[in-house]
Amino acid sequence: MRLGLWLCLFILLGRPAVSPAETPAPSVHWGALAYPDQQRTLSTGFTMNRFTQFNVKGEAYPSTIDETIGLNFATLSWTERIGKWGTNLTVGAGPTSDQPSRFLQNDFAHRKILHQEPIPVGQTRETTDAMVGGSVTYWGEWLNVPDVGFVGLGIDSGTLYHEAYARIGLRRAPVPFVPFMRVSAMGRYGQLAPGSGFQQVAGQSYLGQVSLSIGDYRSGSPPRWELEVGASIDSGLFVDRRGNSIEQTYGTIALRGPGIHIELWDDVIADKDQGPTFGTTILIDLFHVIELFR
Fold first, then answer.
1. Per-residue b/e over 19-37, b at no fewer than 16 CB within 10 Å?
2. Using one digit for the tens of pLDDT, what is the confidence trace for 264-292?
């Protein structure tokens, strides 16, 4: 209750700017929005991803992973801007366990919302995992609008896997004659290597992502509030028994207000409940909190 009251206070008293945020790996390969931050920010919060070995029929995901995985990360993400350049450092760490993601998937979503049978759970991963990522991004103009086009390089590493990647795209590009709407798109290529958690991964990754945002952009960018809906296709982090990558498609929805970012991603586009099934994040902008108490 107290957390809810504080979040409401941030939204009511906040300056006209949403909270930008970057989620730690492996969220990008679960379907999270993976655009770089446009503004300077220091965000912290909680990020969860669930890998489901079976579907509701008990059929196994055709990968080399033979367990259900619930990643629970406490996260910290820092983005700094120096002229047209942006740098980001994002870390996430925490206990890997079957809960609380099992409760959200089986007890809440399947039983209470969808009125379906729960997803079978066999062996689970029980340990502590951590990931750290860093990136450098150059921001340029798009149709005379600054800080829309971007190109950058980054690296993710930790207990799960390792990846070096490049990304290029548009972030919050204006839509002609529709002042409350923005469009984003990105292409990303990565070179992958296994870690102790995921001992077999694809050698490379191709990812495409598009999204549509609506918000109050009258005060410029970023807006006071924003709702974003996105879709992505990923050539796959995981591989089958023959070593071939397993392609995935995802849907994403994000809600942002002054000082807060809430996002949910799921493989709902593929209409299945196995593999990298879903994830969520709740982040608070610490710079914004500090301003409130000045």
1. bbbbbbbbbbbbbbbbbbb
2. 999 877 767 788 999 999 999 998 888 87
